[in-house]
Each structure stands twice: as structure tokens, then as C-alpha cells.
């Protein structure tokens, strides 16, 4: 047993057990302390990554560690730490103090950490379910809030469908290859094509791609807003790393490109047009995430180093912009009667110029305005599509990005061009929320100016 390869997971496991016992012994008034310990745990796991010797395998070769996996885990741990540090004040104000919150987030992170290193469909299934079940619980953890329970229930139902699809795909994969290990396969037979169909469908559901997106708007709208920041970033980051691995193995098969292109085109155009009809900021961002799922899926169309590097860079910086947006929204939601209707955001830029400017900057980043890091991600993804001669998909990507600009700019216009009712003068940020927003905005800006700081770590 190579314990060194499991060092970050052991750090997370120890932190989860410590928080569990602290929750049993401490009173509710120590919730902030528990959150601080919970936020510190992923940072310690992040530090432990520098002591992992790679490449390495363990757990009967079902768990592998390389530079790509370590990079994914590093981003995952930063997102988890920021998510935990930003939630304690929100749940305190909402009278929904649950000592379990920090370590349930860590349990989900532990599952995703195993998921990133899994090279076997069995361990992938178990680790994904460990994360998913934790997220179902987190989505419902807003006391006396019906929409939170409704969103969690819909997420659970759709997630169960994803579980069934993944299990069925794994069965067909074993039937065609004789193994649960992810290995190169050249025979494009019907059984293997079915396995690709089911596995891609299951993963498309997890990343909110059309037509498996139905859970996303309701879950985002109903879940506690700081939890949405975690749900919309960490699990999707891990799944795109797996999709890159699958692309390296199977993208030479004809069904792969067809399935990925259909999922991508449907997601990009359907979500971007439906987003114009939304009146809730959280639902608008939900459809934005669906559209981005379409953009990201373009990065796994073919096995190409430039394309995959662009995808992983784009996904990584997108997660920070998304997390920062939801942390700001959660700060607004702490005020009584705030509904996230677009009209509620009138006057934000005049009454609270700093938060208005930061939220608008995240929206402009989603469009791909330079010098934000998401512009670099979009540009490199477009160049990757051109490099692989996928000109129709590259053209569709540009058109969809242009279409998306309208609803982001409409939100910005409400923030800066409309008169408000004075509600944003009472907005207060906790230290944790301020830190999370600051780190996210620094990542989005600095990595836009110096993208090599991140892209140099993405090695295949």
C-alpha cells in the first residue's frame, strides 16, 4: 500500500473526524470556530500535495496520482476552503446553524478528491456517490425553507437517474472490454457505443448539460446560496477532469464526437436563449452554468493537448468567478425580504459601488471580456477547436458567446443604471465572505494578465 499517494485524502479524513467529534462536544455558538477548522482542513490538504511523490498508484492500481490529478486537487481544495469560510455568517443570520455543515462539505470534497484519482469505474462510482449524497443533504439545509427542500428533492431524483445511467454504462463497458479499468479501446461495437452513451449521459447530467439540465435551476434557486457556490463549482471541476481522461482514450471513436457535439450545441444555444426569460438572478446564473457546460464540452471533442489544456484552464478560472458571484449573492440574501429578483438589484452600483463593481466584473468575465482570465480560456478553447479543424463547432462557440452577452449586460444595467430603494446600504460582509470574494477576484484578474501561472501546472 502506497500511503504517500493518499496523503491529501488522509488529511481530509482526519479533519472530517476531528470536526465530527468537535460538533458532538461543542455548543452551537462555536459554529464559527467549526467553520474555521473546516476551512483550514482543505488548505492543509493543499499543502500536503507538495509532499506527494508522483507518478504513483495504489489500491490495486485503482487510484493513480500524476501532475494532472494533483493540479485538479489543488484547485478543488482552494474552492472547498473558500466555500466553507464564506458560509458561517449566512447560516447564522438565517437561524440555520448546523454543526454538520463544514464536515459534510469536506466529505463531498473527499469523494471528489478520490474521483480525480480514480482509474476504475467502481471507484469512480463510489466516490461520485459519496460526493453527490453529501450535496443532496447540503442543498436541503436551510431551516423552515420549503424551496430548499423542493430543490434538494428534485436534485435527488435527477441525481438518482444519473446514478442509474452511470451504473448501466459501467455494465456495458465491462461487457465489451472485460474490465472496469479505463483503458484504450479501438473496437467501436454496439455494446461499447452504448456504454459511451450511458456514461456520457450520466456525466452530462452532473455538469448540467442539455437535455439533462432540469434539476439545475430549481436546485440553484432553492438551495442556500453559499452552498450553490460550492455545488456549481467543485463537482463540475472534477467531472471535467474525468471527461478529459475519457477523451484521451475514446475520442477516436465516431460515436464520441457525435454525442459530445450534440450535447454541446444543445446546451450552448438552449441555455443562452432561455436565460433571457429569467427574472431571478440565481436562475439566470443556473442557465449560465448550463451554457458554460456546452462551452466546456467542446474541449473534449477530440484528443488534443492544446484543446484539453484550454478546457482545464477555462474550467478552473470559471469556478472562481462563479464562486465569487454566489458569495456576493449570499451576502445580499442575508437581508430580510431579498428575493434575488432582477428588480431587487436596482441601484446596487450607486448604493454600494464596490460590491456592484465586483459583481459586474464577474458578469463581464463570463462574457469573456479582457483582461479577465475567462477571456484567455475562451480564446484558447477557440484556437484549440481551430487547431483540430472543428470549424463548425468553433463558429457555434463564437455565436453562442455573443448571444450570452445580452443577459449579462442586462443584469449590469440594472445594477448601475437604475434607481434603487436603499436596501444595499445595509449589506454587511463577514470576514470569511470578504476573503472569499477577494481571492476569487484576484484569481480572475491576475490569471487573465499572467495565464502561465496556472497553465504551466496543466501537464498531461
Structure, described:
The protein has one domain (3-455). It is built from 20 helices and 2 strands. The protein has helices at residues 7-25, 31-48, 67-85, 88-93, 101-117, 121-139, 146-177, 190-206, 215-222, 225-231, 234-250, 254-274, 281-298, 305-333, 348-351, 353-367, 373-387, 391-417, 431-449, 452-455, and strands at residues 56-58, 63-65. Strand 1 (56-58) and strand 2 (63-65) form a beta hairpin. Helix 11 (234-250) packs antiparallel against helix 14 (305-333) and helix 13 (281-298) packs antiparallel against helix 14. The radius of gyration is 21 Å and the shape is globular. The mean pLDDT is 93.
How many structural domains? 1
Termini, distance in Å?
25 Å
Order of helices and strands: HHEEHHHHHHHHHHHHHHHHHH
Give the strand content: under 5%
Q: Low-confidence stretches at least 5 residues in length (pLDDT < 50)? A: none
Broad structural category: mainly alpha
Going across the major beta sheet, what is the strand order?
1-2
Oligomer: single chain
What's the tally of helices? 20
Look at the structure and give the mean pLDDT: 93
Question: Major sheet, described briefly?
Answer: 2 strands, antiparallel
In percent, how helical is the residue content? over 70%
According to DSSP, the number of beta strands is: 2
Radius of gyration, CA atoms, in whole angstroms: 21 Å
Amino acid at each position: 500500500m502506497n500511503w504517500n499517494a493518499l496523503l491529501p485524502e488522509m488529511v481530509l479524513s482526519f479533519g472530517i473526524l476531528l470536526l465530527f467529534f468537535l460538533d458532538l462536544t461543542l455548543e452551537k455558538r462555536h459554529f464559527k470556530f467549526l467553520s474555521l477548522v473546516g476551512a483550514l482542513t482543505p488548505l492543509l490538504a493543499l499543502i500536503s500535495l507538495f509532499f506527494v511523490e508522483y507518478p504513483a498508484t495504489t489500491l490495486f492500481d485503482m487510484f493513480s496520482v500524476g501532475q494532472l490529478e494533483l493540479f485538479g486537487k489543488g484547485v478543488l481544495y482552494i474552492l472547498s476552503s473558500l466555500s466553507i469560510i464564506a458560509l458561517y455568517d449566512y447560516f447564522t443570520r438565517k437561524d440555520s446553524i448546523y454543526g454538520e455543515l463544514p464536515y459534510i462539505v469536506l466529505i463531498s470534497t473527499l469523494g471528489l478528491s478520490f474521483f480525480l484519482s480514480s482509474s476504475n469505474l467502481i471507484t469512480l462510482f463510489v466516490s461520485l456517490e459519496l460526493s453527490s449524497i453529501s450535496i443532496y443533504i447540503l442543498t436541503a439545509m436551510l431551516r423552515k425553507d420549503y424551496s430548499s427542500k423542493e430543490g434538494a428533492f428534485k436534485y435527488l431524483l435527477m441525481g438518482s437517474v444519473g446514478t442509474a445511467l452511470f451504473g448501466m454504462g459501467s455494465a456495458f463497458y465491462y461487457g465489451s472490454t472485460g474490465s472496469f479499468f479505463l483503458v484504450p479501446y479501438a473496437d467501436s461495437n454496439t455494446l461499447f457505443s452504448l456504454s459511451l452513451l450511458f456514461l456520457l449521459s450520466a456525466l452530462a447530467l452532473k455538469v448540467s448539460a442539455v437535455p439533462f439540465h432540469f434539476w439545475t435551476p430549481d436546485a440553484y434557486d432553492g438551495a442556500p446560496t453559499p452552498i450553490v457556490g460550492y455545488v456549481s463549482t467543485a463537482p463540475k471541476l472534477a467531472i471535467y477532469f474525468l471527461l478529459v481522461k475519457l477523451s484521451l482514450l475514446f475520442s477516436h471513436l465516431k460515436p464520441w464526437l457525435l454525442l459530445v457535439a450534440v450535447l454541446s450545441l444543445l446546451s450552448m444555444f438552449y441555455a443562452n436563449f432561455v436565460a433571457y426569460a429569467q427574472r431571478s438572478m440565481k436562475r439566470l446564473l443556473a442557465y449560465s452554468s448550463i451554457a458554460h457546460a456546452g462551452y466546456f464540452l467542446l474541449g473534449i471533442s477530440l484528443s488534443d493537448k492544446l484543446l484539453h489544456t484550454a478546457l482545464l484552464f477555462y474550467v478552473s478560472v470559471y469556478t472562481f468567478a462563479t464562486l465569487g458571484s454566489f458569495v456576493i449573492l449570499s451576502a445580499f440574501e442575508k437581508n430580510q425580504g431579498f428575493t434575488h429578483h432582477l428588480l431587487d438589484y436596482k441601484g446596487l452600483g450607486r448604493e454600494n459601488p464596490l460590491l456592484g463593481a465586483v459583481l459586474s466584473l464577474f458578469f463581464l468575465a463570463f462574457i469573456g471580456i479582457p483582461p479577465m482570465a475567462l477571456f484567455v480560456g475562451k480564446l484558447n478553447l477557440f484556437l484549440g477547436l481551430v487547431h483540430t479543424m472543428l470549424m463548425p463547432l468553433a463558429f457555434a462557440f463564437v455565436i453562442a458567446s455573443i448571444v450570452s452577452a445580452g443577459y449579462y449586460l442586462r443584469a449590469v444595467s440594472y445594477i448601475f443604471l437604475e434607481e434603487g430603494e436603499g436596501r444595499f446600504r445595509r449589506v454587511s460582509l463577514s470576514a470569511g465572505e470578504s476573503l472569499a470574494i477577494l481571492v476569487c477576484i484576484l484569481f480572475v484578474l491576475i490569471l487573465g494578465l499572467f495565464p502561465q501561472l496556472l497553465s504551466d501546472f496543466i501537464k498531461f
